[in-house]
Specification:
2 copies of one chain form a homodimer.
Chain A: H1 3-24, H2 31-37, H3 42-48, H4 52-77, H5 81-98, H6 100-108, H7 111-114, H8 125-139, H9 148-167, H10 176-190
Helix pairs in contact in A: 1-2, 1-4, 1-6, 4-5, 4-8, 5-6, 5-8, 5-9, 5-10, 8-9, 9-10
Chain A binds a DNA duplex through α3.
DNA sequence: GTCTATATGACGATAGAC
DNA sequence: GTCTATCGTCATATAGAC
């Protein structure tokens, strides 16, 4: 069969799974829910993925890699920690508005509950990249001398919390409306 | 039967459930796991709780109420936003060390996945109390004029993120070791 | 590759004896 | 109140025809 069609079907499965996982959660979604939503049969689905868990893992890894690519691009585009981290937060806010499901899945999924033995989100590629940027910012003197983990949470903890608020429907306005004030406040916490 | 014994059994169920829910998650824990861990039979367990969901709800509500009490006590003890919020973060850090399971359950559980229709954590009693304190702090002029939600996440987003790091085993040292620096950084973000 | 039909097993919850 | 035994349901995954 044409590879093109195969890919379309794979993506249909992943898309439907993403929708259902964020809507009702991994454990409240059955394989048959995904299968019918993606317009194919159970047998076919199991031809594309070994099992339900594999769908979740592929999904998570895709989103994670995509974010990592974006972070690398931001790193190339800007040359200092302020501009870089500012762009990251803006990117996260925008993505949450444009592609809410992805962000919700990335941030809200207790991935270790789905995949028995799984590393913490905090040692994932995107996280490490952000950490690297912050460490460089400390070396250059733009960010105060402080415990690196504390610097990380001070800079990104607020914005990330803001994303949770938005996903939970607490904020009336879209995230970008709060961006300038939120970023400014976060930066005040770490600037030299 | 003596009320005392009834209460002991009820607590045994809740304690075992808390342990298992945090260890492997709600959906990976069966009623029979809880029952055997709490040293009683299935039938007896169902005499104490209507169903599995009720256990999770009671647990969540207990922890939430307990935290709310503590926040109220802190509010009575201090008379300004700086001292109050400082005490809150310290309390959260201490509790995470002393009673990791409770905090993990409170912070990490996707409660809406367990209980179909459930309000967001962000409109829970403890959250609203914290919000009230921050709003008063803005009125008194200790905290800068800014969107209240942004003030909330700037002040507590970092510390809460720190708790996640600790629960996930990323931090080598216990949380109190990071407290002063973490609180100082958070406050810098909102102070007038 | 894709489908339908089904095996297998687990789990939540109840019945009914004591 | 407490137990053991069991029922009904449903979800994952596979078998086997096309």
């Amino acid at each position: 069969m044409r590879d093109e069609k195969k890919q379309r079907r794979q993506e249909a499965i992943l898309l439907e799974a993403l929708k259902l996982f964020t809507e009702r959660g991994y454990f409240n979604t059955s394989v048959s829910d995904i299968q019918s939503g993606a317009n194919l049969s159970v047998g076919t689905l199991y031809n594309y993925f070994k099992n339900k868990e594999a769908i979740a893992v592929t999904l998570f890894s895709n989103i994670e890699n995509c974010l990592y690519e974006n972070l690398c691009e931001i790193e190339r585009k800007y040359d200092n920690v302020y501009d870089r981290c500012r762009a990251i937060v803006l990117h996260l806010f925008d993505t949450t508005e444009r592609n809410s499901d992805s962000m919700q899945y990335l941030f809200y999924t207790k991935h270790r509950e789905v995949v028995p033995v799984e590393k913490s989100v905090f040692v994932s590629l995107p996280f490490l990249k952000m950490r690297e940027m912050v460490l460089n910012g400390q070396k250059s003197g733009d960010i105060r001398k402080m415990e690196p983990h504390v610097a990380m949470v001070t800079l990104f903890g607020g914005p990330v919390r803001m994303i949770y608020l938005r996903i939970d429907g607490v904020l009336e306005k879209p995230l970008p409306a709060y961006f300038e004030e939120c970023w400014d406040s976060a930066w005040r916490g770490v600037r030299a």
